[in-house]
Amino acid sequence: MSFFLERLAEYYLQKYSTDISDFCFVFPNRRAGVFFRRHLQNKSPKPIFSPEILTINDFFFYFDKRPVSDNISLIFKLYQSYKEVIDPKTTIDDFIPWGEMCLSDFDDIDKYLADPNQIFKNMADLKALEDDFSHLNQEQIDAIRTFWSSFDPKRLSQLQKSFLELWERMPLLYEHFNDRLDRDREIYEGKLYRSVAQKIKNKTIGEVPFSRVIFAGLNALNNCEKLLLNYLKTQNIADFFWDYPQWILTNPAKPNEKISLFGEHEAARFIKQNLQDFPMPSDWESPTCNGPSKIIIAQAANDLEQTQIAAQFLKDISDNQEDSDHTKTAVVLADETLMLPVIHAIPSQWKSINVTLGYPLKNTPAYSLIDALMTLQRTTRTTANGKTWFYHRHLIGLLRHQYVSPLLGDKRDQLINQLIKANKVFIEKDQIPENDFIKKTLTKVETIEALSSYFMEILLLVYKSLKERPDTDFEQEFVYHLYLTIKRLGEILGKLNEPISTDTWYRLFRKLTDFSTIPFKGEPLNGLQIMGILETRVIDFDNLIITSMNEGTFPHTSPPNSAIPYNLRKGFGLPTIDHQDSIFAYYFYRLIHRAKKVILIWSASDANQQTGEMSRFLHQLYYEFHGKVVTQTYVRKAGTKALPQIMAEKNKQVMVQLSAFLHEHNRALSPSALSTYVECPLRFYYKYLVGAKEPEDISEELDPRIFGNLFHQTVEALYKPFMGQIISEDILKQIAQPDNLRNTLKEIFSLNVPFIKQKQNVFIDLQGKNSLVFEVLIRYLTGFFQNEIKKVPFVIKGLEYSMGMVFKTPSGRSVYLGGNIDRLEEKEGTLKVVDYKTGKGTNRINDIESLFDSSKHPENKAIFQTLLYSLMVEEQTRRAPSAIQPSVVWMRKLFTDSDSNLYLQPVRGKKEVITLDLVKTVFVDSLGKLLDELFDPHMPFKQTPEEKNCNYCIYKEICLKG
């Protein structure tokens, strides 16, 4: 079976031999032309001069040579016309969103040869009708006034009048804008199309510079294109070839033929009319096909999982040698933002890759760098004495950017650590060591002229840095494209005869880049093809992998960016959302109808963790390719080979990491570390062996971790003077005096929260949320000491008491365990190991084994940890196990339950207070097995099978589970 472009090349070589050098072949996109040229080369029996190969847009340029202006320039020219014709007081940043919509409407009006005067007159009339209340009777008017007191059906508001005047003056704006472009010898695409169409109508188009023009693979023609094609048809110099799945034209009324579930197929909306108006040559035979032999619909858990599934299919294709010519396999991205993850996931077997698509500029690291610089500029403050201050989050965020690291080298991490160690919310410039990059970056820019130069200079530094590093071609393209955008924006703003603030510059930049894309263009003569949907037109593949087959992504569900209502667009023949749906349907069915194997991947959740919905095209496939569709769901489950793990075995390198963690740095395995291992071995690996952790930052708000630390430190400070004494009710009442609690907590706050102590030894009152946290802590402390009074007398033996022991496992391994106990107290001959917990948990278990069960451990971890501390206390104090009791003070239960005891209650058994003696044998045995498993080189660090343990895990974004 030959492909469409291959068959087209054969047809013209057979019919005209090599005499086609003065022909012109017109395709919907450039990539199709590259493939077609290769087929001509391969099929031609001898060297030939290549014919002209153009896109339909390029073909129009042969009849009007004026250059098409870029979108930024057009927006500003339209803005100038708008101020002269409609409203001179409008600011540029208010105008931009409306201006983009207006340009889009002008483009459609011109391409479809609609009358702008009629359209905008109808718009004004429609808006007037919407505001006409003359049909209301007095009773209805009185009813409306009950909730709209100023309602007057005879009087339009000033806003309504202005709105009507806008639409009444829109024809003048259209004319004024086009006159301005004519004076400047510029044009936009719709204007180019209308200009060529007008030349055809006026018979001034001139001679066509080709002996024959071949239009191949077009679909939804606008009125200008139809006029041009018809003109060339009447000149008898044009051929037309339409590429479509033949079955979509089948009449559902005919028996024994494939029936579309929806009657006339939406993908055939334009094909029938095209075939009627511009028939194909009678001797042309379209390449036949029976559709894909197999269609796989694969469900992924999220967007990142889609890339892994695509990579697995690519590996299968390569292993099975289904594509010796890699150009016959394509990965099509319905969502272009997946480009980089897909490229990084491609298996090593695919040596060559060609990328042709438009990648969103706002998703690039280069854009995020400019965004970080803009944020830093907006929050930088210069004082009257000339000092410059930076807000810590924005400064550190910039320093952590991936492009800044190569520019600063090791100095970057040193600087970040230095700033964090200083723990200051606002950082003065003189405190920051300077180098060339820091000097150029940490400068407050005051004017828009300097702002453009500032960003361009930094991007130039980044670009030179990237040039010196391998495999940074994409990043260089990102930086280059953003550099040109900023340069162009700066040039246009420089020509405006009005002042522009830096805030306006930021808004303009963001609005202009929101919909900008970087056009990656390759010469796809070999290698795997990475493409966007629009780039697939006319091109066929044996193997297709299409990602992001979600409703709303493919097809797009957003209507055209237009101010013209649906009914008016439909009435004047302008494209509507229905038009868009039909185009996407055609793209989809044309793309898959010659492929041998099709893999369609959709995501059950998007980047924002919102539920995803399978595209309606996939639902239709079950009816249109009955029996050929296979559904596969890729969800990694416990016990399957897909469950992520580190190594099949703990290799030598991993065991060295574990040894280094425990011995080379004199570290002990803490109860919290072992709790992490029980909950998820893979999390233990990331946190303790790899050392992957959330970047440290300056604490500005009191998160739960800081809240717990404040409570612990305050209790320690209040009890410290009474260490070793018998704690009586009088002592506790003295400690719990409101002034004593407040003063002590203030001191602890000043040590933990950087902006509390702005001046030396001066406490600044708390503001906002943190003042509430302070009061909540005071309430907790008051409740805590009220409960403590119920326990007197007792003796405090230790606060934040450091403990450790060497534990012998069943295999004979010695493991050092250690940590800090919140409090060690003695009462009536019993040593109580007390732990303060600010989180959730239980004080009762059915059996000791449940402490080592990953599904139950999160709830039981407090009991597990205090029992482990109790073992250490026994080792160090030589007390009898019966005289050692673990205990937990639950902050959340201070006002409902003062019981700090822990209980063992087997199912249908008696509840007993847990002492070390009661549970030691079973606990030690289970702990030994756990430690032997941890150090077993043949036991991998597997991910937990309990998904609930992943909910708040900081590694879930990098974990393969997704």
UniProtKB/TrEMBL annotation:
Alphabetized InterPro entries for the sequence: P-loop_NTPase, PDDEXK-like_dom_sf, PDDEXK_AddAB-type, Restrct_endonuc-II-like
All residue ranges annotated as the PD-(D/E)XK endonuclease-like domain in the record: 669-959
Protein name: PD-(D/E)XK nuclease superfamily protein
Originating organism: Thermophagus xiamenensis
